[in-house]
UniProtKB/TrEMBL annotation:
<keyword id="KW-0812">Transmembrane</keyword>
<feature type="domain" description="Hydroxyproline O-arabinosyltransferase-like">
    <location>
        <begin position="345"/>
        <end position="603"/>
    </location>
</feature>
<feature type="region of interest" description="Disordered">
    <location>
        <begin position="649"/>
        <end position="689"/>
    </location>
</feature>
<keyword id="KW-0808">Transferase</keyword>
<keyword id="KW-0472">Membrane</keyword>
<feature type="transmembrane region" description="Helical">
    <location>
        <begin position="698"/>
        <end position="721"/>
    </location>
</feature>
<dbReference type="InterPro" id="IPR056508">
    <property type="entry name" value="HPAT-like"/>
</dbReference>
<dbReference type="InterPro" id="IPR044845">
    <property type="entry name" value="HPAT/SRGT1-like"/>
</dbReference>
<keyword id="KW-1133">Transmembrane helix</keyword>
<dbReference type="Pfam" id="PF23452">
    <property type="entry name" value="HPAT"/>
</dbReference>
<feature type="domain" description="Hydroxyproline O-arabinosyltransferase-like">
    <location>
        <begin position="11"/>
        <end position="210"/>
    </location>
</feature>
<protein>
    <recommendedName>
        <fullName>Hydroxyproline O-arabinosyltransferase-like domain-containing protein</fullName>
    </recommendedName>
</protein>
<keyword id="KW-0328">Glycosyltransferase</keyword>
<feature type="compositionally biased region" description="Polar residues">
    <location>
        <begin position="671"/>
        <end position="685"/>
    </location>
</feature>
Length: 762
């Protein structure tokens, strides 16, 4: 816990504490870490087998089922208690993706290559020799965790194959069954690991040249000169609760320098003393929290509190990791070097309209499912007037931009210019720590991560998708609007660009868009490729001509984006749907332009017409079948996003009865407007009538109660008035009282009207 805080690891941390009820009664360490208590499985509840290591997967299964944190995170880092963090472990920076967790290499798991894997997984070829450090997407963990537990039980029970030559376990006791449970469970789940052999090191080992490990795993005995440490020697040690006690102090750094002349071996010794010194520093702080008296001065305590030690143990940053995506073969060294995965930031631009709001809901839903690493920002272009009434502020992380739909100088109405204008605004108003920017459109659905390392983007070499209809790159349009027409690439849609390139390029993108938009003499289809000849694709040419001015040549990939309705290339796993055009499946169709005025975001449970069921599709032509399946996937993702959005907005149960007639009528009318009523209108509208009988008696008694209350009130008032009359009360007083009564009635009536108005509005 001390090293976790010192390393500045982002996000919350949870200790999964496995205890029996008897152990819990006497346990004193509940305050040592944020804790989720887990029923102990050290002694298996069914077999009686004593195997405490099974508590790890069992604890994770329990956490997934019972922790609120598990509902609010995208990435999970799983570590062991006998570890010291030296720097933050951030999954997306390490290159973790959905379906591709990061893990450390455990080469001794030889069972991945022999009969053990064949016995315990249907996919032995997917068995990775990994463990120790795990960083994965929460969705992958949900699939893996129960398999991890069940495969651990399975391997643990397979005593016939505990031999060292099969498992690699030098004790031959099945102690590493949990490690195989993980590898076999991951193989069953189809997870392929990115294996990083440089993040974690055992103290006592020598790090590779140039490598700065960020995790120390002190599971083995290690020594520096005549000093040594073994965690097993402290198995029953109550050192946490004994004031003033620390682990034996190791040699000082200056002494270590004299021990070893080889600089790399010396670094290994420094890591060993750093490990134990960090643990002792943590013990000192814990003793202070326990209320222990301040320890007496000593040379060692002075060192632990010194600036020298603070400098030596400040958080470490990642060094270029060596990653392999295939399981390591026996005896094969992992020596493929790769640079650290850079930070990514995803942008998409929208406007203050319900048309863009439903696109945003679909986009954000798919973004979270895709495993796209890094942060995301919606560039929201609005006028001040539009912002006053805008309801969609919470739909996405947002940067607000002044609208340029109506050009401030020319008065030209061209909303597409907001895209480059918003990017320029964002660059000038936000502190950006990402190295690469991915720019997408709101009318897209992500199916997988879009990363610069996969598609080979680099400084001076952005990546994009082909827009072959931009024929102006090949004719006089390019010659008119760029000095380097030969550098004009027909690209758009998806952009992956280095931040330095984007800073140089963004303003040119905006200026060239204005320039092409103003060149009405060249709007013709044979020049621009725009079938409407309206200059609507000026922004696309603005991008291509601006990039040409800087000689930015794109890597053009046709495997990133597909339009629903287009026939896919066999074997290509497209990362983005761009539903900018109408697409059809049989008699069903979807055209985003027809939903320009529909408010499906703010009308509860509004969705688009459901596409056909895949089982009804023709199976004769596989290419057409794949086309239709992709179209159905796109439409279903949009509708699923809307349903989840309405659920988050706490929309009432769509199956519940709506009491006010006005609400029922309004809901049905809305459904008809959105194309969702079909043959169900009669059923939906008749349901409230069927339920009316349940409440008719109740309404009768309520009305009767009000009648009797009114009569009682009148009788009381008559009695009061008669008494005043008998006492000779003046006429003026009677009039005054009547005025007061009338004024009070007006106020009550006003409140009633307000109440009725609020009821209707609800």
């Amino acid at each position: 816990m001390h090293s976790f805080n010192k390393a500045r690891q982002p996000g919350p941390v949870t200790r999964l504490l496995s205890c029996t009820e008897e152990e819990r009664k006497n346990y004193k360490g509940m305050d040592l870490a944020p804790t989720l208590e887990v029923p102990s499985m050290s002694k298996h509840p069914k077999t009686g087998d004593w195997y405490p290591a099974i508590n790890k997967p069992a604890g994770i299964v329990h956490w997934l089922k019972h922790s609120k944190d598990a509902e609010n995170v995208d990435w999970v880092v799983i570590l062991d208690a006998d570890m010291i963090l030296r720097g933050p472990i951030i999954p997306w920076e390490l290159g973790a993706e959905k379906g591709h967790p990061i893990a450390a290499y455990y080469g001794y798991l030889v069972g991945c290559d022999n009969i053990l894997a064949k016995l315990h997984t249907t996919h032995p070829e997917l068995c990775d020799k990994v463990g120790g450090l795990l960083a994965m997407h929460i969705d992958d963990l949900r699939v893996l965790a129960p398999l991890w537990l069940s495969k651990t039980e399975e391997v643990r029970e397979d005593k016939a194959h505990w031999a060292t030559n099969i498992t690699g376990d030098i004790y031959g006791k099945g102690w590493i069954s949990e490690m195989y449970g993980y590898s076999f469970g991951a193989a069953e789940a189809g997870l392929r690991h990115k294996i990083n052999d440089d993040l974690m090191i055992y103290p006592g080992y020598t790090p590779r040249p140039g490598v700065e490990p960020i995790l120390l795993h002190y599971g083995l005995t290690f020594s520096v000169g005549n000093w040594s440490f073994s965690k097993l020697e402290h198995h029953e040690d109550g050192i946490v609760y004994e004031c003033g006690r620390l682990f034996p102090e190791p040699p000082y750094p200056r002494e270590v320098k004299l021990m070893e002349s080889d600089p790399n071996k010396r670094r290994g010794l420094f890591l060993s003393i750093e490990c134990i010194n960090t643990m002792n520093e943590g013990l000192l702080l814990q003793h202070a929290r326990n209320g222990c008296p301040k320890p007496k001065w000593s040379k060692y305590l002075s060192f632990l509190k010194s600036k020298t030690f603070a400098e030596l143990t400040k958080p470490k940053l990642l060094t270029p990791p060596r990653i392999q995506t295939e399981p390591a073969k026996e005896g094969k060294e992992i020596d493929e070097y790769k640079r650290p995965y850079p930070k990514i930031h995803t942008l998409f631009s929208t406007e203050c309209t319900t048309y863009f709001d439903w696109q945003t809901v679909g986009f954000m839903h798919s973004f979270h499912l895709s495993g796209q690493p890094g942060n995301i920002t919606r560039l929201l272009s609005c006028t001040d007037e539009e912002l006053k009434n805008y309801k969609g502020h919470d739909l996405a992380p947002t940067h607000y931009v002044p609208s340029m739909s109506r050009h401030p100088l020319t008065g030209d109405w061209y909303p597409a210019i907001n895209k480059p204008a918003a990017v320029v605004h964002w660059l000038n108003h936000v502190d950006i720590d990402a190295e690469y920017i991915v720019i997408l459109d709101a009318d897209m659905i992500l199916r997988g991560p879009i990363t610069p390392w996969e598609f080979k983007a680099a400084r001076g070499r952005p990546v994009s998708t082909p827009y072959d209809y931009l024929i102006g790159c090949d004719n006089e349009l390019a010659k008119l609007h760029t000095r380097h027409p030969e550098a004009c690439d027909k690209v758009g849609g998806v952009i992956i660009m280095h931040i330095d390139d984007l800073r140089e390029f963004a303003l040119l993108w905006l200026l060239k868009t204005e320039e092409v938009r103003a060149d009405k003499a060249h709007y013709a289809t044979n020049i621009t490729g725009d079938i409407f000849e309206s200059g609507w694709i000026s922004e696309m040419y603005g991008y291509s001509f601006g990039a040409a001015e800087l000689n930015l040549r794109h890597l053009i990939s046709s495997e990133i984006l597909i339009y629903p309705g287009y026939v896919p290339e066999p074997g290509v796993k497209y990362r983005v749907f761009h539903y900018g055009l109408e697409f059809k499946v049989g008699n069903w169709s979807f055209d985003k332009a027809k939903w320009r005025e529909a408010d499906v975001v703010n009308n509860c449970w509004s969705t688009f017409p459901d596409p056909p069921d895949p089982s009804t599709l023709e199976q004769t032509d596989d290419s057409l079948l794949q086309r239709d399946l992709l179209s159905i996937e796109c439409a279903r993702t949009l509708n699923e996003a809307l349903r989840l959005h309405h659920k988050r907005r706490n929309c009432p149960d769509p199956n519940a009865v709506s009491n006010p007639k006005l609400d029922t009528t309004r809901d049905i009318t809305t459904s008809r407007k959105l194309g969702r009523s079909s043959g169900n209108d009669s059923q939906e509208s008749s349901e409230p009538k069927a339920k009316d009988g349940l409440f008719s008696t109740l309404r009768f008694w309520i009305i009767l109660l009000w009648v009797f209350s009114g009569l009682g009130f009148m009788l009381v008032m008559l009695a009061v008035c008669s008494r005043y009359a008998g006492n000779g009360s003046s006429k003026g007083k009677s009039i005054k009282n009547r005025r007061r009564a009338y004024t009070g009635f007006l106020k009550t009536s006003s409140r009633d009207r307000q109440t009725r108005k609020s009821d209707v509005s609800l």
